[in-house]
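To assess whether ligand presence alters the predicted conformation, the chain was also submitted together with PRP. Input:
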Amino acid sequence: NLINEKSMKGMKGAFMINIALPKGRLGNKVYDLFEKIGYESSEIKEDNRKLIFENREKNVRFLLVKPSDVEKGSADIGVVGRDVLLEENPDIYELMDLGFGKCKFAIAGPVNFKENFDRPLVVATKYLNVSKRYFDSINRDVELIKLNGSIEIAPILGLSDVIMDIVETGTTLKENNLKVLKTIEDISARFIANKSSYRFKNEEIEKIVKSIKEIL
Ligand code: PRP
């Protein structure tokens, strides 16, 4: 309908594109990428607590929301680690591998770790589904403990035997006397789109995809 369409479209008659920008390490890299293709919004780099930033000229809006919420329509497109996709299996389109934000899923444990095969392995992780799939695939009985951050602390406190987590530089493991016991899978940042946004705002989204591909 005309009224809705009008309110959804910006000044130039094109649809406004909402981009989910993760906070933290990956977020900065993602913003830099959009800046490179000309979608800057300098306010983002200021130290503030704002959650929405616009570039009216380019008709884009950056939202600091979890990219995994792109599935629900909180944003049209976003960038998310493959770890999140493997864990949450959201119903979205994965449009491209951006090739940065590289890290690995790994099992890690104390440097002197000896596995006891007579009992289930106790694994602390934020990634319950990925862990379950992996240990099922090797037929190893496990007890999974869900933690939400600083997973590395679990074996130190005796809460678990090992952890399943993402490892980038390995510094966190090293500084906590842990080491990688087994590397499971390569992770990198993926460009994703909400399924209905991809249909209705196809032209605008494809334009962004094309610009990014040109500079990668
Ligand atoms: C991740 C991961 C490790 C760390 C690994 O945590 O959970 O703790 O990065 O990086 P490194 O190998 O370079 O040391 P993140 O910083 O994303 O925060 P989190 O603990 O909130 O998940």
